[in-house]
Amino acid sequence: MQKIFNIDAFPTGYYMCWFVTTQAAYLVHVKLFDSVTTYFDASKQSIEIEPPLAQNAAGIAGANVQLLIDIPESSGIDNSLDAFEITNNVGATVGYGYNLFIEDGGDGDYNDVSIMLVAWKSKN
Ligand SMILES: [Ca+2]
Questions:
Q1: What domain range includes position 6?
Q2: What protein residues have CB closer than 5 angstroms to ion ligand 1?
């Protein structure tokens, strides 16, 4: 079973940071990519949260940032998705973020995969 999420709030040129953990019996494959670049393409199979499946940052090179979650052994991938904006002290938007929590089985704990994505307008 796999799912693709469109991270469509993230503009080209923004500075993107990601942090991905798993706590799952199944093999979990996650890929973050856009029209020109693959930012990470990694797999993990462990019920232990450490080490993270992926953690890093990069400037967004292309358009249409997308996140692929692939869990071949899972018969159904459910998710809780929260999108937010980062605002400065006069209310202007200076970044965007997504928190995504995946349930790959039937126990409803939504901790099998956790993905935190942020993109700021400026790196420094
Ligand atoms: Ca679960």
A1: 2-120
A2: 105, 107, 109, 112
